[in-house]
Amino acid sequence: MDRFGSLRERLETALPGLDLREQEPMCRHTSFKVGGPAALMAFPQSGEELSTILKLAREAGVRPFFLGKGSNLLVADQGVEEFVVKIAGGLTDLTLEGETILSVGAGVTLAQAANFAADHSLTGLEFAHGIPGTLGGGVFMNAGAYDGELAQVILSVDCLDEAGEFHRLEKNQLELGYRSSVFTKLPWLITGARLALQKGDESEIRAKMADLAQRRRSKQPLEYPSAGSTFKRPAGHFAGGLIQQCGLKGRSVGGAQVSEKHAGFVINTGGATCQDILDLIRLVRKTVLEETGVELEPEVRMLGIQLDH
After folding, report:
1. What average pLDDT is seen over the chain?
2. Long-range contacts of 152-155 (CB under 8 A, 24+ apart)
3. Residue 307 pLDDT grade (very low, low, confident, very high; cuts 50, 70, 90)
């Protein structure tokens, strides 16, 4: 029996109600709608289940891969020999501490958190309303849009270490940067966060959210599967502008295309494979580097993929 089979037996014994799946197609769990099967996948609903999962995975010598909504992830066509733990669907607590502090579970979508804040006339989270991921994924990447990012509102983050032990990290421990946090190098699982917001006027908050939503719809190819902005913003430039400048807007490889609406997005126009998307990303990076001298760094996380090979 391989290590994943052994881990599955341990999990079934310790957590008989846990949803466990072998060879689960990752195309069902990524916004790109591509990706082969994961060796083993778990769908926990509570912090207690997660703590047990992490302890048993560590004992089995398996390092889990944590997944939110898969809105910033590209997975290899052939699948991955990974134990994937999907947080979206669990950890959905969303409460108010005092008058202005939001306590948000890692499985809550950023849109849900922004709406909850608006319901309570709290401002500061409007920028996050259109970001398609979960709070956990958002903290991991320090997600942002329209001059806002989670670093502006995070007070602290709750997490579990490799042994399933609880920790609360304060903001100064999180190393929040542009699309990065301490969790990009620390293999701990984010379970929730506390966000510090401010009192505002609900109608003004709703109006700002509506305005940002309209701007997003008008400029971004939301009608196609994608992972949002494909590349990080290079210093002194905009990725989409450089790509358009190089004549790559609309360029296709198989079912993957540089969006004609916004060159910063690689989209799945229908039937794209991971390889199509990867080949197009490589083509864009090579062309932009050759023509402008700027090296684009993907913002999209990759699983089972070596970008430069």
Report:
1. 95
2. 152/124, 153/124, 153/125, 153/195, 153/196, 153/197, 154/193, 154/194, 154/195, 154/196, 155/101, 155/193, 155/194, 155/195, 155/196
3. confident
